[in-house]
Structure to design on (806 residues):
């Protein structure tokens, strides 16, 4: 496989995953906004900006923090490189560069999502925004389904590798920012707002029901942290994303004979996560843990690029 | 156009109320299918094209940087015997083009024989002195030709242009057929239509057949300028359907006259390149030094015989408009026979007598720049204003060698869906001819382009033209089907 092709497939996976994540984040934030006691909705949108590390960029736009403005910024703002529309544009550019490697189904899922967003300027009110992000999630699911029907070879593995690396990053971000930023002054830990916020985290990663299946106790932050970091059963947990990264690197090594630094890093991370207990993480500082995790994830990303000569 | 009536591919003589007898079934289909239904199917085809991204980019048009080419649901149809005659003519022509290229970059016998004026070759920007003396693997130059034809009557086909560089449109031939199979399956029950979907296999066979000698399992690739190129969809489509890599220049490198591509597992040697990059941009060391699209050293590897380039660099001299007018003599010179496919009558304005005729008849003629393309730089006399004619007259007198002129032909029409229902629209046709080391073949089909505006003769996609599927009927056409269904019984009982 051409190195350029491998690189485009990997980035395609990352951008699709990122678009899906931002869609989920906007959906959860609309919900949180609605649930919040008035006029606290603003905090929900502020946190959505914090999760994506775009508060500065948003501030520069001169808009006020409100559903209307932040939702537009995160979904349709073509000047903001982290918006869904820009992620889809990047995903589509990469997909175009490797069209020969994709099936029609995989390509059309991306192209349909892109066509839906292209040229739109406003996400509309809460209902319309929810419809819009739902459509993104649908196309992302369609894309995922399509790649699972493709040949099980390097092509799908590079896409999935990009998805796994991006997913780990997104989950870590989500957990980090919610834990530190959200609770407004005077709100009690374990109070209504606190509960809503933890529920929203679960909702963002489609894990509300999963939580109930896995934990017999009611909603407890320590359990949410455990679920999102250490439980490999949850597809979006750090453990599951790390496991998948390692598995795919193994498959690639077996098929291409290429292994090296990236495999070693992924293996070390995996064995460390298998031993991780949420209690220890909380005691020694969740924020520090997640920051370190993402720094390591970025190093792994660099190592992957070197290993497969992305250039 | 004057008052002449155009031949209609389906209805026969223009104005006829009934189709040509062999195409009666298409007439019935048209009569029985309401316009609204035809329109719905057409829209469905276009929606699919949009979704699949079967688009072309229009340079300098930022509003609609990606457009689909309008698709028309009514096919144009070739009878089996029409196609057989056409194919013979195409094969003869493409063989002559190859012989011409081999000669002009080699022994130049045709110049010694005085068939062509030498300055037409040596003063031509399409002539590449850099590659004179290089012989492509197996001596084949024009592996893929798209010969543009027009028709004016039942047996009157004329070649309008020989595209021997990087002819495009074959993806539309294949996608249009896909759309027709899905949307109008009943037509394929009525007619036995030759399949076009073997094209990618035939192309790959052709590519493999011209690999440098001694290469057992040649690595073939398609070289594209990248996804901003207007024909990128076609490049990716072809690589995809042949199952080979689509590469950009940056994916290739030349080391010691061998071409390699960069892969995740290191370098892989490349043997055959179907390049969709013009000569000028192919190799900055030999052609345009500013090209970012090219592969430095590629021509040197080609000269060393280590890689086959499809089509060969330098082919432009064969499909140049100035050379075109000599093509009948060229065919005769190399084949020893009369050309089976005529040219459109052409006046070379470089010749004083021809120039005089052209200047006297400007309002009846089409005048073209020899190096123009895509419908640019031309005068269509009958529809031009007085001012336009006078401007061209001045240009012709100043630089006559830059122009040729042709009569305005009564291009054939095909019923086409317009706002007012079905009405005749002018068409042209581009069949694709493949030449490998094992022979020449014409794929039974091609690209029919249609001028969507009433009366217009301009079919270029950049000027608002559309496309249609082109059916080539197999021997027996629809007659055999009829015999099977009811005609057969009647015949045996009646006899």
């Amino acid at each position: 496989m051409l190195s350029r092709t491998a690189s485009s497939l990997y980035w395609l996976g990352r951008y699709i995953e990122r678009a899906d994540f931002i869609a989920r984040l906007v959906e959860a934030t609309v919900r949180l906004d609605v649930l919040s006691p008035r006029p606290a909705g603003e905090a929900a949108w502020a946190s959505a900006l914090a999760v994506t590390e775009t508060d500065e960029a948003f501030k520069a736009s001169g808009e006020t923090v409100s559903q209307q403005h932040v939702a537009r910024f995160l979904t349709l703002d073509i000047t903001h490189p982290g918006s869904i529309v820009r992620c889809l544009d990047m995903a589509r550019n990469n997909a175009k560069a490797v069209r020969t490697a994709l099936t029609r189904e995989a390509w059309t899922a991306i192209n349909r999502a892109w066509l839906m967003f292209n040229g739109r300027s406003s996400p509309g009110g809460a209902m319309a925004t929810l419809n819009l992000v739902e459509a993104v999630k649908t196309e992302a699911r369609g894309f995922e389904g399509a790649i699972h029907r493709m040949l099980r070879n390097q092509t799908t593995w590079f896409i999935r590798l990009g998805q796994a690396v991006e997913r780990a990053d997104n989950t870590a971000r989500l957990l980090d920012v919610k834990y530190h930023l959200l609770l407004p002054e005077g709100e009690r830990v374990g109070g209504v707002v606190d509960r809503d916020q933890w529920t929203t985290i679960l909702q963002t990663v489609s894990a509300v029901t999963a939580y109930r299946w896995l934990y017999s106790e009611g909603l407890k932050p320590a359990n949410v942290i455990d679920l999102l970091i250490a439980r490999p059963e949850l597809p979006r947990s750090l453990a599951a994303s790390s496991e998948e990264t390692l598995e795919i690197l193994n498959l690639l090594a077996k098929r291409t004979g290429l292994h090296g630094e990236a495999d070693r890093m992924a293996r070390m991370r995996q064995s460390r996560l298998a031993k991780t207990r949420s209690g220890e993480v909380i005691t020694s500082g969740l924020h520090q843990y997640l920051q370190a995790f993402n720094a390591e994830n970025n190093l792994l990303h660099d190592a992957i690029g070197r290993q497969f000569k992305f250039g | 156009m004057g008052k002449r009536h155009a031949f209609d591919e389906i209805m026969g003589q223009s104005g006829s109320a009934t189709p040509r007898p062999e195409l009666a079934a298409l007439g019935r289909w048209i009569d029985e299918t309401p316009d609204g239904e035809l329109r719905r199917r057409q829209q469905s085809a276009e929606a699919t094209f949009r979704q699949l991204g079967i688009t072309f980019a229009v340079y300098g048009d930022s509003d609609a940087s990606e457009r689909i080419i309008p698709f028309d649901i009514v096919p144009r149809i070739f009878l089996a015997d029409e196609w057989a005659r056409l194919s013979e003519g195409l094969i003869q022509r493409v063989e002559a083009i190859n012989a011409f290229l081999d000669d002009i970059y080699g022994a130049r016998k045709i110049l010694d024989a005085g068939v062509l004026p030498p300055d037409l070759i040596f003063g031509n920007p399409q002539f590449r002195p850099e590659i004179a003396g290089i012989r492509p693997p197996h001596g084949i130059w024009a592996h893929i030709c798209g010969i543009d034809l027009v028709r004016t009557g039942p047996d009157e086909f004329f070649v309008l242009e020989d595209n021997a560089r990087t002819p495009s449109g074959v993806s539309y031939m294949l996608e249009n057929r896909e759309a027709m199979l899905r949307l109008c399956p009943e037509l394929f029950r009525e007619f036995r239509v030759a399949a076009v979907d073997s094209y990618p296999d035939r192309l790959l066979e052709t590519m493999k057949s011209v690999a440098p000698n001694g290469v057992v399992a040649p690595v073939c690739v398609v070289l594209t300028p990248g996804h901003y190129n207007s024909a990128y969809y076609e490049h990716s489509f072809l690589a995809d359907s042949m199952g080979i890599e689509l590469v950009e220049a940056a994916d290739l490198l030349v080391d010691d006259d061998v071409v390699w591509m960069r892969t995740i597992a290191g370098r892989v040697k490349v043997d055959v390149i179907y390049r969709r990059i013009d000569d000028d941009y192919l190799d900055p060391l030999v052609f345009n030094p500013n090209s970012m699209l090219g592969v430095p050293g590629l021509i040197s590897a080609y000269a060393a015989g280590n890689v086959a380039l499809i089509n060969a660099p330098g082919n432009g001299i064969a499909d140049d408009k100035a050379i075109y007018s000599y093509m009948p003599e060229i065919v005769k010179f190399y084949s020893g026979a009369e050309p089976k496919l005529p040219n459109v009558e052409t006046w070379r304005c470089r010749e004083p007598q021809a120039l005089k005729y052209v200047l006297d008849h400007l309002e009846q003629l089409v005048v073209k720049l020899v190096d123009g393309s895509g419908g640019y730089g031309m005068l269509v006399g009958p529809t031009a204003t007085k001012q336009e004619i006078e401007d061209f007259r001045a240009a012709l007198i100043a630089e006559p060698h830059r122009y040729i002129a042709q009569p305005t032909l009564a291009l054939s029409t095909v019923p086409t869906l317009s706002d007012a229902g079905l009405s005749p629209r002018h068409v042209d046709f581009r069949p694709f001819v493949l030449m490998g080391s094992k022979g020449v073949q014409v794929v039974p089909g091609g690209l029919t382009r249609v001028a969507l505006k009433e009366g217009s003769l301009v079919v270029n996609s950049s000027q608002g033209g559309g496309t249609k599927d082109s059916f080539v009927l197999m021997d027996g056409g629809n007659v055999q089907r009829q015999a099977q269904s009811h005609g057969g019984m009647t015949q045996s009982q009646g006899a």
